[in-house]
Design a protein that fits this description.
The structure holds two protein chains of two kinds. Chain A is built from 15 helices and six strands. Chain A is mainly α. Chain A has two domains: 218 residues, no CATH class; 74 residues, no CATH class. In chain A, the strands form three sheets. In chain A, strands 1-4 form a two-stranded parallel sheet. In chain A, strand 5 and strand 6 form a beta hairpin. In chain A, helix 5 runs parallel beside helix 9. The two termini of chain A are 22 Å apart. In chain A, 35% of the residues are buried. Chain B is α/β, with parallel strands linked by helices. Chain B folds into two domains: 217 residues, 3-Layer(aba) Sandwich (Rossmann fold), CATH 3.40.50; 73 residues, Alpha-Beta Plaits, CATH 3.30.70. Chain B contains ten helices and 13 strands. In chain B, a hairpin with a 2-residue loop joins strand 1 and strand 2. Classes of the chains: A mainly alpha, B alpha/beta. Chains A and B meet through helix 1 and helix 6 of A and helix 2, strand 5 and helix 3 of B.
């Protein structure tokens, strides 16, 4: 393996790609779709005049990046899924293998060309990212992290597709399987999580003691019979049968999902500064109410939700018990006990596991590709020609 | 120029693909400065053997040295010294001929300046200079074949392995290919050519290795081909065809009805042919030509590969 060898293959692949495809048309369509999406999203946030969402950039940027990821996952498998077996079909692989290029040179050169092409697509979204930033609220750190993670995720898809093209002799099969692999990462993880979560749902018993309100705490017009009932039940223990999902056991199934990784890796927004809070209060006193973009932040919201899944639900028997009155009902009052699970006290990140998994898969895919390109070969897969 | 190269030595090469034993004991030597022809019917294992020599396949058994190195354990050393052109290959359609050769020059680590110069040399050699900057897909089949062949020469290999290099070439290109390979051999390259065009090989090769059903069945210098044991047709042509036929009939030779190209006579071996010719000359028949039909190599080939 040598930098010169990798560069030789990568340049060659890149040159062939540029000459073979209608890249201008493809990139134009890509950009046009993203522009359309951004405009619609901006319009959905209240049009171009109504200022009811503060820091729109947060929502536009987050939505755009998730959309870019989704669209890229549709484009990127095609960039590498026929790279090795396509060369074999065209009879240009063996002549490359007998040169002084090593198997790793060929593998990494092809990977670099595919990934580089994917990054060109990412680069084209730059004007829209600038637009989103101009809409205020997007921290620079978030842009940096999201860009890097997005690039790594696209590289993973390139590496998996490349390995499939090296493992399978037919280009159509490897093409289909590359899309299936992306489907497995995106939808498959969701399905697996959903189904296993249903399996891990378990019953649990919570017990509580009836509260002991003092007579003065109860409403004056509470009928005497109910008043007696409440006071009589004071201090008694009641048990409840509940079910709860143990997503703390299955959250990792979601971790390899590219959308989960991207959203969770995006750093959470900093809390409002004192000045921003004052501004907001002043606005509200003037009767201008704005929805805080933090509440509808697509990246942050998805990230928080996933982190919440990772934490175990409240330990058995420690559920909080609330006592509330349900408004005046004809005939009297009723008391209701609401049982809520404790909200997670901490939210640990999920993305490092997912990203590490995906990058490890990518590294494995490149290793497999190199192995399959290594010559002289001892075992040939059925139906595969050497040259 | 005398050569210091080691050529190719292969002994007892075996290679199996699943249930099929494609090569089951091929021996072959190819000395530097010589053209060695690899001849045998389809499926005899020629291509498989060349793949082993070209560092692409691990043989199941056998000793192989290419340019003095083991293709399995030292493939890079072999690749630096060996050029290979397969029977079927693709070109990168969107490249120009010059870019194609320069890419391989890079792949063989020639260095930018040398790569550029070498590409031009090869374009001149392959008579493709006028197409140098046009995309490969506009080239004719023969031109593509020549371009693919010159690719194998990019790094001036001391061992050259060519699998059916003449297929698709027009007669002029075949003559040029022959001259090119002779020139390379004269410069010390060990050349191995597999081909079905036995007539071409006869004028090109110094030695011939016959293979059949995965094994070597004969290895000969071209001027020392084995004696024929079976009657083969020889074609005779004389100024007076009628007199020739009459003489043949009189002497009891098994001959065909004369055609425009001459009369075919079945005889066994060079001795018998010389006797026949001497007899005809004695009888006053003015013989113009007498040669084995398809050439001596074809006769030997048919003899060895039943």
């Amino acid at each position: 393996m040598s930098p010169h060898g990798i560069a030789t293959v990568a340049q060659q692949e890149f040159r062939l790609r540029i000459r073979a495809g209608r890249w201008r048309v493809l990139l134009s369509i890509w950009f046009a779709v993203l522009v359309l999406f951004t405009c619609l999203l901006r319009a959905a946030l209240g049009g171009f005049s109504n200022e009811d969402v503060a820091d729109k950039g947060i929502v536009i940027y987050g939505g755009l990046m998730l959309f870019v990821l989704g669209l890229a996952l549709l484009v990127v498998p095609a960039l590498a899924a026929q790279s090795v077996n396509g060369d074999r079909e065209r009879g240009t692989l063996a002549t490359l293998q007998v040169t002084r290029l090593s198997a790793a040179d060929i593998c990494l050169g092809k990977f670099a060309a595919a990934w580089g092409t994917a990054l060109v697509f990412l680069f084209v979204t730059l004007p829209l990212v600038v637009y989103a930033i101009a809409q205020k609220g997007v921290p620079v750190g978030r842009v940096a992290v999201v860009t890097v993670v997005l690039a790594l995720l696209l590289g993973t898809v390139c590496a998996i597709s490349l390995a499939l093209s090296a493992l399978l002799s037919r280009t159509t099969t490897s093409g289909v399987l590359a899309y299936l692999a992306v489907f497995a990462l995106t939808v498959g993880t969701l399905i697996a999580f959903g189904l296993t979560t249903a399996i891990t749902t378990e019953p649990y018993t919570s017990s509580y003691q009836n509260p002991c309100p003092s007579a003065s705490q109860l409403p004056q017009d509470l009928p005497q019979a109910q008043r007696d009932q409440i006071l009589a039940g004071c201090g008694q223990t009641q048990t409840f049968q509940e079910t709860r999902s143990r997503t703390d056991r299955t959250w990792w199934l979601l971790a390899p999902n590219p959308f989960v990784i991207l959203a969770d890796a995006a750093p959470q927004l900093p809390p409002l500064t004192a000045a921003q809070k004052r501004q907001r209060q002043a606005d509200e006193q003037r009767g201008v109410f704005r929805q805080d973009a933090r509440d509808i932040d697509p990246l942050g919201g998805l990230g928080r939700a996933v982190r919440g899944l990772r934490e175990p639900p409240t330990a058995i028997g420690r559920s909080t018990v609330g006592y509330s009155q349900v408004g005046p009902v004809s005939g009297g009052y009723s008391s209701q006990l609401s049982i809520a699970l404790d909200p997670p006290k901490r939210r640990r990140p999920v993305w490092p596991y997912g990203l590490a998994f995906d990058v490890a898969v990518a590294a494995g895919a490149l290793w497999v590709t190199t192995r399959r390109l290594a010559t002289p070969s001892r075992n040939l897969p059925k139906g595969q020609r050497v040259a | 120029m005398t050569s210091t190269g080691a050529g190719v030595v292969a002994q007892g090469v075996r290679r199996r693909f699943g249930d099929v034993e494609a090569v089951r004991g091929i021996d072959l030597t190819a000395a530097p400065g010589e053209v060695t022809a690899l001849v045998g019917p389809n499926g005899a294992g020629k291509t498989t053997l060349l793949l082993v020599l070209a560092t692409l396949l691990v043989p199941d058994a056998g000793e192989v040295r290419v340019a003095g190195f083991d293709p399995v354990r030292e493939p890079d050393a072999v690749r630096a010294r060996m050029g290979w052109s397969p029977d079927v290959f693709g070109l990168y359609d969107n490249l120009t001929a010059r870019e194609y050769l320069q890419f391989f020059a890079d792949a063989y680590r020639l260095g930018p300046a040398r790569a550029k110069a070498r590409a031009q040399e090869l374009l001149d050699l392959a008579r493709l200079a006028e197409f140098a900057d046009r995309p490969v897909h506009v080239l004719s089949r023969g031109q593509k074949q020549r371009l693919g062949l010159t690719r194998a020469l990019v790094h001036e290999p001391e061992v050259l392995l060519l699998d059916e290099p003449a297929s698709g070439l027009d007669p002029r290109s075949r003559v040029e290919l022959r001259d090119l390979l002779r020139a390379l051999a004269a410069a010390g390259t060990a050349v191995i050519v597999s081909s079905h065009l036995l007539g071409d090989l006869e004028e090109l090769a110094d030695r011939v290795v016959f293979v059949d059903r995965g094994a070597t069945v004969g290895e000969h210098r071209l001027d020392q081909l084995p004696e024929a044991t079976v009657a083969r047709p020889w074609r005779l042509r004389a100024l007076d065809t009628d007199a020739l036929v009459a003489a043949l009939t009189r002497n009891g030779y098994d001959h065909d009805v004369p055609g425009p190209a001459g009369v075919d006579v079945r005889i066994t071996g060079d001795e018998a042919a010389a006797d026949l010719l001497a007899g005809l000359v004695r009888d006053g028949i003015r013989v113009v030509s007498c040669q084995p039909l398809g050439g001596a190599l074809e006769a030997a080939y048919l003899e060895l590969t039943q």
